[in-house]
Amino acid sequence: MARHAIRPELSEAKEQGLHNIGEASALSGVSAKMIRHYEAIGLIPPASRTFANYRLYNDADLHRLRFIRRARNLGFPMKQIEVLLGLWGDPNRSSAEVKQLAQAHSDDLAARIAEMQAMQRTLQSLAAHCHGDHRPECPILDDLAGPCH
Question: Residues 42, 62: contact at Cβ < 8 Å?
């Protein structure tokens, strides 16, 4: 649905199948605050407005918001989501480019998981060597105060 130059009343907009920001939030699973943010940074087009200046969203906007929410849930950074949205809207896209983005993100996640697992193992080892009693000696604090590894 094209954006309207004439600003309808909210009741007219609802009759046309448009949604205010609260409804768009409920239907897309994206908070109203984030919807406004996505609009401000250009991930979604500027909302059409009612006569009273309320934002209005159509079904295509809701679909786009759901796409963004799903990409965010998978941990994609905003810049990559912007690229994915562009590819999604390009009927001449190459799926190879989409796959490359997804694989690169997966590889990044795997590296971050490995780093976090190494941190966990270190903390478990430090905790295992700490007596955890009334004595002031603490290998955890000693390790934190020592030289960087």
Answer: no
Q: Tally the C-alpha atoms within 13 A of residue 6's C-alpha that lie toward its C-beta.
A: 4
Q: Do 44 and 62 contact (CB within 8 A), yes or no?
A: no
What is the DSSP secondary structure assignment for residue 52, as one 8-state letter? T
**Residue 56 burial (CB count, 10 A):** 24
Kindly give, in sequence order, each residue whose CB lies less than 8 Å from that of residue 82, ignoring residues fewer than 6 positions away. 42, 43
Q: How far is Cα 20 from Cα 32, in angstroms, rounded to an integer?
A: 10
pTM: 0.80
Neighbours of 55 (CB within 10 A): 20
Report how far residue 37's alpha carbon sits from residue 47's, in angstroms, rounded to the nearest whole number: 12
Q: What angle do CA 72, 123, 115 make, to 5 degrees?
A: 40
- The Cα–Cα gap between 131 and 16 comes to 69
Q: What is the pLDDT of residue 14?
A: 77
